[in-house]
Amino acid sequence: MATDETLNRLPDNLPDDPMHWADAWLKEAMASAAQRNPNAVTIVSVGDDGQPSARVVLCKQFVPDPGYFVFHTNYESRKATELAARPQSAALFHWDAIGRQIRFEGQVVRSPAEESDAYFASRYWGSQLGAWGSDQSKPIASKDALVIQIRERGESLGLSLADGTTRLQDDHVPTIARPANWGGMRFWAQAIELWIEGEDRIHDRGQWKREIVRSSEHTYTTTPWRGKRLQP
Ligand SMILES: Cc1cc2nc3c(=O)[nH]c(=O)nc-3n(C[C@H](O)[C@H](O)[C@H](O)COP(=O)(O)O)c2cc1C
């Protein structure tokens, strides 16, 4: 496990727990508040035509053992439909202010429904309404049409919204259930690279790989990590 002294360079003998290092880096980035969303991570998916695409999501849970992280999204979005067809993905965290990046390769599968339910229930009502209100990745005629759609869905959920807005009219917030098409996705790491910015571009790079084999709808069995140092 990484300690404060070891966080600024990788040890000569690379550790065998890179996911714990990644977890420590993410915690440090969150604590330092060096950027507005230190848990922002870019996720890649690939379409039927072989075209890769990338977008930022927020990492809401990091689980070093057995080695995955979780983001949440609309299961009918471009990313989720592409990942359902081709789970292979790449992901990237970058913290410019502290000179670090973490690259991942792996596979993405849905989180168990009860985990998504628990996370959805913990969200602010406005975020819950956002999940109901947007058919993510689908076209819409205008921003006004989007607001009308969100308002209609909000009212059918029992929210009283002020005229023409998506703001609450009173303090009453009904319990809002998770939409079936929204939930967590687990990014299971198969390869990880920890990168530390160095002076004169002498950066420190450690790369680790392991095998992962799907063992259930949400889980993989994994082998131990094997690491090597890479030139910058
Ligand atoms: C800082 C930031 C955080 C974001 N977080 C999420 C997120 O957690 N989940 C999500 O579905 N989209 C999130 N988005 C929006 C996505 O980048 C993207 O626009 C959206 O998911 C649709 O992508 P898709 O059409 O490729 O599926 C975020 C965007 C930014 C810039």
Structure, described:
With about 230 residues, the protein is of the alpha+beta class. The chain has a domain at about 5-110 and about 185-230: Electron Transport, Fmn-binding Protein, Chain A (Pnp Oxidase, Chain A, Roll). Helices cover about 25% and strands about 30% of the residues. The chain has five helices and eleven strands, in the order αββββαββαααβββββ. The chain has helices at about 20-30, 80-85, 115-120, 125-135, 145-155, and strands at about 40-45, 50-60, 60-65, 70-75, 90-95, 100-110, 180-195, 205-210, 210-215, 220, 225-230. Strands 1, 2, 3, 4, 5, 6, 7, 8 and 11 form a nine-stranded antiparallel β-sheet that branches. The chain has a two-stranded antiparallel ribbon with strand order 9-10. About 25% of the residues are buried. Flavin mononucleotide binds near residues 53, 72 and 79. Flavin mononucleotide binds near residues 53, 78 and 137.
